[in-house]
From TrEMBL:
PROSITE patterns: NLPC_P60. Residues 47-173 form the NlpC/P60 domain. Residues 1-35 form the signal peptide. This is C40 family peptidase. PANTHER family: MUREIN DD-ENDOPEPTIDASE MEPH-RELATED. Pfam families: NLPC_P60. One of its GO terms (molecular function) is cysteine-type peptidase activity. Belongs to the peptidase C40 family. GO terms for biological process: proteolysis. It comes from Candidatus Cohnella colombiensis. It comes from the Bacteria. The keyword Protease applies. Keywords: Hydrolase, Protease, Signal, Thiol protease.
Length: 173
């Protein structure tokens, strides 16, 4: 058995402790970097999914007709909420049918923090009551299935034209 002088034991202990601490700092740094990469990857995949939702909704322009209270994908006949339900389902996101029900899904988003793919809710008949839904596209525009004197189907509108009707928004992804 080798007997080390006290200063050699102290130096050896300090060296071992430094190696252990350095190793745990490397592990912690690696774990932190991996978590950050996962968050970026998750954000990127969410953004891609929301872009796909907006693009799919746009692809239905001219194909879909609005019918109140109807959810008939085989004939491309929807009301506003069955349209959003159908569009989000294309990306594996399940929504309930009904604008009021959809307004309770996901998380609240302020108007100033809207991102493409967020659901936006309006009052188009009874003031203050949610009875219409659309999908925010970005740049102050949204896409929705609606009917009116000049349109029956999927249209892109300016959010600023609906300021007095806007109620809330939700992020469901």
């Amino acid at each position: 058995m080798t007997i080390y002088p006290i200063w050699k034991k102290t130096l050896l202990t300090a060296t071992c402790l430094t190696m252990v601490l350095s190793g745990s700092m490397i592990v912690n740094h690696t774990q932190t970097a991996a978590a950050a990469t996962t968050q970026v990857s998750s954000s990127t995949s969410k953004a891609k999914k929301m872009t796909a939702i907006v693009n799919f909704a746009k692809s239905l322009q001219g194909k879909v007709t609005y019918k109140f209270g109807v959810n008939n994908p085989s004939r491309y006949q929807f009301d506003c909420s069955s349209f959003t339900k159908y569009v989000f389902a294309s990306q594996g996101i399940s929504l309930k049918w009904g604008s009021s029900s959809q307004s309770k899904q996901g998380v609240y988003v302020s108007k100033s923090n809207l991102k493409a793919g967020d659901l936006i809710f309006f009052s188009v008949s009874t003031k203050g009551k949610i009875n219409h839904v659309g999908i925010y596209m970005g740049n102050g525009k949204f896409i929705h299935n609606t009917t009116g004197s000049k349109v029956n189907g999927v249209v892109i509108s300016n959010l600023s034209s609906y300021t007095d009707r806007y109620i809330t928004a939700r992020r469901v992804s």
